Amino acid sequence: MFSINQPDNAVEEWHGYRLYNFSLKGTACKVVCPHREAEGTPWLWRARFFDEWPYIDLAMLEAGCHVAYTDVANLFGSSKALVKFDLFYNYLVKKHAFNPKVALVGYSRGGLTVYNWAARNPDKTACIYADNPVCDFKSWPGGKGNGPGCKQSWKECLEAYGLNEAEAIEFKGNPIDNLRPLAKANIPLLHIVGDSDEAVPVSENTNTLANRYSKLGGYIEIIHKPGEKHQPHSLKNPTPIAEFIKLHYLEGLKSC
Q1: The model scores a pTM over 0.85
Q2: How distant, in Å, are the alpha carbons of 31, 67, 72, 155 from that of 110?
Q3: What are the residue ranges spanned by the domains of the chain?
Q4: Under CATH, to which class is 8-254 assigned?
Q5: Do residues 70 and 130 make contact, with C-beta atoms less than 8 angstroms apart?
Q6: 214-251 confidence digits (pLDDT tens)
Q7: Residue 220 to residues 108, 183, 205, 241, Cα–Cα distance (Å)
């Protein structure tokens, strides 16, 4: 079970579970502990919106998973974000004996981070659950397709990647471009999308990714929410998500 020496104000109760707040080289991190740890010390790794729409977090805590989060939201899945992800991963796996494989969770722009990290680390990725995810930064925050984009976020995104606008348009390092390592490793994907997502159009993100992943022989499930927009994320009844993660992650640990 995860435990570190922290000031009292850095440890709190979160929905009935113990939450540790700490920093790794200046990056805010969180770990929530289950009441009883499942076999193999599995964990769920959130890349965005900690404490919002926590339905799957609570379901997996109940199943014995730790829930982890590190704040890299404003780095948009760039190499700077992935370095911070590597640091957090190594800290939890090497120092606290978390399972070497993790279930990744990416809401909205968190999709950029979890997919880009998984493409570099397919051997460390058990499965991915992405919710209305950004799969191509040209769509959001770039707004180069049917969505409105976000000027300020686009500026921050370009800065994070060290690209100008012309270079960003030609960039081939988005999740939709780097699916082959995931397919080769047989990593299962689950996307939940609001079919009327006004910010991150499904056609430019999830649909493009799903079509390419399927052509590579990869497995992806998509749960559609007819008429729903970008938010709210997740499902109030997270059973389908929990069953996906248990099947493709926890069940495999039991057989080890």
Answers
A1: yes
A2: 17, 15, 9, 17
A3: 8-254
A4: alpha beta
A5: no
A6: 999 999 999 999 999 998 989 989 999 999 999 999 99
A7: 18, 10, 14, 13
